[in-house]
Amino acid sequence: MELRQVEHFLAVAEELNFSRAATRLNLGQSAVSASVRALERDLNAALFARTSRAVRLTEAGRVFLPAARRLLAAARDARNDVSTVSGMLTGVVRVGLTQTLQGIDVPGALTDVRRRHPGLTLQLRQGYPNTLLSDVARGRLDLAVVPVTKAPPEGVRLNLLYSEDLVVVTPPGHRLADRATVDLTELAGEVWVEFLKGTTLRDATDAAARAARLTRSIVADVGQLPLLVDLVKAGAGIAIVPRSVAEQTGLLPITIRQSLPRRILMLAYPHSTQSTTAAAVVIEALMSARRRTSIAAVG
Q1: pLDDT, the chain, mean
Q2: For site-directed labelling of 247, which of 75, 177, 207, 228 has its Cα 20 to 30 A away?
C-alpha cells in the first residue's frame, strides 16, 4: 500500500466519480483507476462498486475511508514534525475562506506566514460557510475562516476571530443617507439589494425582516460582495451589511435600532489539528491578526 494510492482512493470516495477525482488530483482518469485497483489488490477487497452510471463505496470501502483519512493526516504530521527538527517548516495547509473577510486582515496574516515559512504551501479555497465547515469535518480542509450561526459539525473546534453589528447602507442622496440610526419599520417600501439565499448574511436579514414584519422588494440577489456594494452605490437599492463592509467601501453605516444577531467570524479546525505543526502556525497567525484588529478597534 502506498500513500499516493490512499490519496487517490480518498479523492474518488469523496467525489464518487473517477473523472472528477482525476481532475482534482491533476491526473489522468486511467492513472487514478489503475492506482485504486492496485490498492484493492493490496487490501484483497473491492473498495468501490462500479457501474456505467455510478460509483459507490462498498462496505469495505466505507470501513477503510476513516482509516485512509487518519493515515494521510498522520503522514502530513510526520512530515511537519521532521521538518521542524531540521529547522525548516514545510508541508501543505489547506485553508477555506468565506467571501466576506472585512474586519480582520486574513490575507495579511497568511502572507506573513509565507514570508516567515517559505517552505510552507498554503492552498486557499473560497466557498460557502456550510460547505467549508463540512470539509473541515471530513478532512478536506485543515482549517477555515467562516461566519457561524449554529453549532459546528462534530469534531470541529471554533475560535472567535471577530464580531460586529449589521448596519443599513443606502445610495448617496437617499432620504436616509444622513441618518445615524434607523428603525427597520421605516424601511417599508424601499427597494433592496440582497445576498444570495442560503448565505449567513441573507439568513440574518431575512430573520430581521420577519421579526419586524417588513416586506421587502428585492431587485437583486447577488453572490459577490463587490457587486452588491456597486449596486447600492449606483442607486439600485439599499442593503444590510456588516459594519466593516460599509466602513471599508465608503458607504455610510446607519445603525439599526432593533437588536439583530451580530456577524461572528470564526476560525474552524478539527480537534486533531492541535498536533499538526504547520496548521498550528497558520492558526496562531490568524489569532494574532484577530488580536491586532481588537487592539486597533479599541484604539
Answers
A1: 85
A2: 207
Residue 11 dihedral angles phi and psi, to the nearest 5°: -60, -45
Domain ranges of the chain: 1-73, 88-161+265-299, 166-261
Cα distance between residue 146 and residue 266, in whole Å: 5
The dihedral through the CA atoms of 118, 124, 130, 136 has a sign that is negative
- The pairs formed by 32-38 with CB atoms below 8 angstroms and a separation of 24 or more are 32/8, 35/4, 35/5, 35/8, 35/9, 36/5, 36/8, 36/9, 36/12, 38/5
- Within 10 angstroms of residue 28's Cβ, the number of other Cβ atoms is 11
- Euclidean distance between CA atoms 104 and 115, whole angstroms: 19
Q: What is the 3-state secondary structure (H, E, C) of 59-71?
A: HHHHHHHHHHHHH
Which set of grid coordinates corresponds to residue 261?
Answer: 444577531
Q: What is the CATH number of domain 1-73?
A: 1.10.10.10
Q: Which of 228, 234, 230 is nearest to 242 (CA)?
A: 228
Q: Which three cell numbers stand for residue 163?
A: 464580531
CB-based burial label for 297 (10 Å; 0-12, 13-18, 19+): exposed
Four-way CATH pick for 88-161+265-299: 2.102.10.10, 3.30.1490.20, 3.30.565.10, 3.40.190.10? 3.40.190.10
Span 198-231, pLDDT tens digits? 888 888 889 888 888 999 999 999 988 889 999 9
The Cα–Cα gap between 80 and 77 comes to 5
pLDDT higher than threshold 50 for residue 195: yes
pTM for this one?
0.66
